[in-house]
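SAMPLE LOG
Freezer: B-3
Tube label: C17
Construct: single chain, 272 aa
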Amino acid sequence: MLKVISSHVFLRHRLHPGLLEKFQNAGAQGVELFAARQHFDYTNRAEVRELAGWFKTNTTEAFSMHAPLFPDTEMGRGGAPAVNVIHPEKSRRIDAMDEIKRALEVAEQIPFRFLILHLGEREDTWSPRALEFSMTALEHLHAFANPLGVKLLAENLQNDVTRPEHLLEIIHTGHFKDIGFCLDVGHAHLGEGVPATLDALKPLLRSSHLHDNNGERDEHLWPGEGNIEWEGVWEGLKSAPQAPAGVLEIHYSLGESPEAVAEKASKAFEKF
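STRUCTURE (predicted):
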């Protein structure tokens, strides 16, 4: 598996080349850029150019980008609505897709392979309308991302819309031949269970979010700090038809120093 780490672990800090250096020194072959304006302002040309310069001169690649969850710099705490491409209101869906397209434009300067996409929020439920809105969003964003060389990956969340069987229905009904999945191990552990979710999504897995929890809430701990059975996870991921990347997605609220993050990431990568 490709060794990747999400910049989500440093969400409270502006992403800069010094932090990318920490990832590279830990053994990361790739980075997933977390598109949050207070962390990585994808609309700021100077900021994008600075990171692009680093990636051009280093071996660690910009592997993927996590689509923005909010359009502001406060993660919605100031009242900004969430980026939700399947929201019941058409204007909200359009605004959400426009925000994601702003993030996708980064690929013009920082080429990355995949965009990790959320379909809905936690309270969103499955319905014919949810299916329709999901297919419309994927079709629209795919048309925008494809010329940039970016493929879309839908992530399993803690909502009804992204249960494994529903994700598969969206892809098959929409005939999306080059859209795949990002398996979020922590979310799966809180839902249908990792083995069942992995088996269902395995044929179209291209990436994975690796983090742990204790089965009660989405803690985003380092692998081994919760109660997920990781031996089965490694075996399952490696048995996928196309071995997915392993992306460490650790929560910023742990408040660990860059040095501690680098040390723990290095140890986690050894298990890959």
